[in-house]
Specification:
By secondary structure, the protein is mostly helical. The protein contains six helices and two strands; from the N terminus they run αββααααα. The chain has a two-stranded antiparallel ribbon.
């Protein structure tokens, strides 16, 4: 792996944490619109499947440093799945529409299925209690990633121009 790619992954991870802490917009209960996912979408477009590292480590560090609940293995794994899945998908598809479709698929799978399953297993939370909350969280995370996809072309153009 080239040095500039490693540096870009580090910067995107730091951006994930910074955007995640910049502003949390409460939606319902403890579910919030997390702007860190904007960075995750940008990482998917710039570093491909390595975006899984950006999402997992960014979320892990953010929760360790700033969350009252501490480290969340379920969010770590969900973001790893979202980053790797969308990262591969973004390498294949070029249109914004298909990128948004893959975001919806991977976020709803990562958060709605995997995160829900892990939390229900680890904490003995009834499935019918956890599913509605995680579906709302999936929608909020998808919204942030869609914002990232919309600004990705400008960022990608700036990064490519700097590499030349």
């Amino acid at each position: 792996m080239r040095t500039n790619r490693i540096a870009l992954i580090g910067v995107l991870t730091a951006l994930y944490i910074a955007l995640g802490m910049l502003m949390k917009i409460p939606v319902i209960g403890n579910i919030q619109l997390d702007l860190g996912y904007i960075s995750l979408a940008i990482a998917c477009g710039l570093v491909g499947p390595w975006a899984g590292f950006v999402g997992a480590v960014g979320c892990g560090l953010e929760s360790l440093l700033f969350s009252a609940y501490g480290f969340s293995i379920s969010w770590f794994i969900a973001n790893l799945i979202i980053g790797i899945g969308c990262g591969y998908a973004f390498k294949i598809v070029k249109t914004k529409t298909f990128k948004i479709i893959f975001i919806l698929l991977f976020v709803f799978f990562g958060v709605g299925v995997v995160k829900t399953g892990i939390e229900c297993y680890l904490y003995s939370i009834p499935l019918l209690v956890k599913i509605p909350k995680n579906l709302i969280a999936s929608a909020m995370d998808s919204l942030s990633m869609i914002i990232g996809v919309l600004i990705l072309p400008k960022i990608k153009a700036a990064v490519i121009k700097e590499e030349k």
